[in-house]
Amino acid sequence: MTVVNLRDEILAVAESPMVQIATIAESMPGSLKLCYGESDMPTPAFICDAATAAMHAGHTFYTHTAGCGELRQAIARKIFELHQVRYDVPEIMATTGGTMAIYAAIRALVGRGDNAVIVSPAYAIFSNAVIMSGGQPRAASLARSGGRFVLDLDRVRSAIDANTRLIIVNSPSNPTGWVVSEDEQRALAEMADRHNLVILADEVYERLVYDLSPVALAKGDGRSIAPSFARVMHDRERLIVINSFSKTYNMTGWRLGWAQTSERTIKAIYKAVEFMTSNPAAMVQQAGITALRDGEPYIAELRDHYRRRRDQVTAALAELPGVSLPEPQGAFYAFPQFRNISDSTAFTAALVRDTGVALAPGVGFGRDGEGYIRVCFASTEATIAEAMTRLRNFVMTNRGLV
């Protein structure tokens, strides 16, 4: 058999433990998959109807690689509506999901011998995109303070050296639910200026925040929204913001996201993306325009649903012995720490085999996540209730192991 020499930077990407757990669950009838980062509720009808109408209206052709002008203008209007920051159309690029925006941005800035500092635990896309670009990911761990995760600026500083190109921040955070404050954003921006770095800010969960102070609310109409780096960083050469329709509008399978940064950086990225994915599907872009224009009532309902599910999961986890849960301030994840778990992959594998409940092992989000598990609470009340009952029974039956 011929053995082909594959690139080291691709071979260095490990299979996600979360995918391993999900694979077990998918072979089990009646399993409850709370391991993926998506809701079990469908995309709302008004968005689906917009895509159907767009197809019938002839939106079935290529658009500009960076997206059609109408969508990019709609994104610019939404950014100003929420953050009172003006972006022009050439400073915005629509992408095939937020995932493509993240990879393309990292690929544009990181190469062999470079490194990127990642506020961690974090979704593995960041570290793996750095590895695939030939660079080295460096974790700057969140700290625990009272009942919350907090940013440790000293850990970020100590991870920076002459080869650092990026600081990567996901807030609201997957998997921790941590939300960065504006003061912390300013401190990170000052670091970027001092060390000639770019901040890559993944803000895809910005609309899913709970119980934040008025400082974290959008100015003007009081809608709940996490603070954006775009509010505090005026040099767009130093900032790339990533966003997506997936979490805000339950459009995970539609694959539509965007990047916002300087015009120079956007042009460099879309020239490369032309030969990766080209443009997002034309009818999906039209549906995105409708979501941005008409989606505010739906977002309010969705956030209220997730707040209730967060409270449901928090109450259930509080009853488990040896478990501590930092407060999920945003996104739709709980990230409890189990006192006696030293192998979160083995724990979640045993859990899914015994109970059919699939949760994501914390180590899948970096070494800082070991001893934790991630519970996605973006499901129905009944699904959450059944999953938490099965988890409790498993923990109480195996108390010597957890």
Write up what this structure looks like.
It is built from 13 helices and 16 strands. The strands form 5 sheets. Strands 2-10-9-8-7-3-4 form a 7-stranded mixed sheet, with helices on both faces. The protein has a 3-stranded antiparallel sheet with strand order 12-16-15. It has 2 domains: 8-43 and 297-391, Aspartate Aminotransferase, domain 1, CATH 3.90.1150.10; 61-294, Aspartate Aminotransferase, domain 2 (3-Layer(aba) Sandwich), CATH 3.40.640.10. It has helices spanning 8-11, 17-26, 45-56, 69-83, 97-109, 125-132, 153-159, 182-195, 263-273, 282-294, 296-318, 344-355, 381-397; strands spanning 32-33, 92-95, 115-120, 136-141, 143-145, 148-150, 164-170, 198-202, 239-244, 257-260, 323-324, 333-334, 337-338, 357-358, 360-361, 373-376. The chain is globular and about 60 Å long. The protein has 402 residues and is of the alpha/beta class.
List the helices and strands and how they pair.
Blueprint: H1 8-11, H2 17-26, E1 32-33, H3 45-56, H4 69-83, E2 92-95, H5 97-109, E3 115-120, H6 125-132, E4 136-141, E5 143-145, E6 148-150, H7 153-159, E7 164-170, H8 182-195, E8 198-202, E9 239-244, E10 257-260, H9 263-273, H10 282-294, H11 296-318, E11 323-324, E12 333-334, E13 337-338, H12 344-355, E14 357-358, E15 360-361, E16 373-376, H13 381-397
Helix pairs in contact: 2-12, 3-10, 4-10, 5-6, 5-9, 11-13
